[in-house]
TrEMBL record:
The keyword Metal-binding applies. The lineage of its organism: Bacteria, Pseudomonadati, Pseudomonadota, Betaproteobacteria, Burkholderiales. Residues 1-29, 30-64 form the 4Fe-4S ferredoxin-type domain. This is YfhL family 4Fe-4S dicluster ferredoxin. It holds the Pfam family Fer4_7. Keywords: 4Fe-4S, Iron, Iron-sulfur, Metal-binding. Transmembrane segments: none annotated.
Length: 81
């Protein structure tokens, strides 16, 4: 499942450089995650790096993007091909 950044985001800029897939960008009001690129760091790290560094815990699973570990790995392979 892809992740999303909630409106509690304080635009601290620490999550964006941590994303190995360049899925995090600045939106109109706060950072956003492109679910087409988000693999929850599968293929790169054991845990989602953006969630690890977020000081306000505003990153959570996106309920609209239900993906299991296998699907995330396939997305990782497609993105890094």
């Amino acid at each position: 499942m892809a992740l999303l950044i909630t409106e509690e985001c304080i635009n601290c800029d620490v999550c964006e450089p941590q994303c190995p897939n360049d899925a995090i960008t600045m939106g109109d009001e706060y950072y956003v995650i492109n679910p087409e690129k988000c693999t929850e760091c599968v293929g790169h790290h054991d845990t989602p790096q953006c969630m690890q560094v977020c000081p306000v815990d505003c990153i959570e699973p996106d309920p609209q993007w239900q993906e299991d570990a296998g699907q995330l790995m396939e997305k990782y392979k497609r993105l890094t091909a």
